[in-house]
Design the sequence.
């Protein structure tokens, strides 16, 4: 495979097995889409060499084990979708990312400055929504925290996300008043 390859889309096939470790040699790759396949196993550190990745779509597979902490070292990452897999650990603090995720949303998520879409719905996340999410100025497509067990008040800092098009906090245990800082956002706390 060419080491100059920038985009690789293999979505919606019947691919199975692990992600080949040789993918780690694709240092120029900025998009990897393996979604909607039957890929299994853990995400090995061998593939962590893809430092230019800005789009990593691994959703709707059967990946298992821990979400790797090395994902947090991919500084260009703007779109990450790990939903509908079999990951079974807490969200690593190094990353800040529909699985069986539990624990709290890490405050260190604020380090993902280029993140423009964040979906961590349908999990078992607890605790409050960290106000630090309000510093992710590039979030523009969606912030989706639905179907978790988040509690407490909606942080007023979410009103700082001026580019955000969709905010969904439904089906949690949020309480208190809707912050006026959210302006025209359509917020549901049900």
Sequence:
């Amino acid at each position: 495979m060419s080491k100059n390859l920038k985009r690789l889309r293999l979505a919606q096939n019947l691919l199975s097995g692990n992600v080949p470790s040789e993918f780690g040699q694709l240092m120029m790759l900025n998009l990897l889409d393996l979604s909607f396949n039957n890929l299994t196993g853990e995400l090995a550190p061998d593939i962590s060499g893809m430092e230019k990745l800005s789009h990593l779509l691994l959703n709707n597979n059967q990946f298992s084990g821990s979400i790797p902490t090395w994902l947090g070292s991919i500084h260009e990452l703007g779109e990450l979708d790990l939903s509908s897999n079999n990951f079974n650990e807490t969200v690593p603090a190094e990353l800040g990312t529909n699985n069986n995720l539990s624990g709290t949303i890490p405050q260190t998520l604020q380090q993902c400055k280029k993140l423009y879409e964040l979906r961590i719905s349908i999990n078992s996340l607890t605790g409050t929504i960290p106000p630090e999410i309000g510093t992710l100025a590039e979030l523009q497509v969606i912030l989706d925290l639905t179907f978790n067990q988040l509690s407490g008040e909606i942080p007023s800092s979410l009103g700082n996300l001026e580019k955000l098009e969709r905010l969904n906090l439904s089906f949690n245990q949020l309480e208190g008043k809707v912050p006026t800082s959210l302006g025209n956002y359509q917020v549901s706390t049900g």
Observations:
- The CA atoms of residues 51 and 73 lie 8 Å apart.
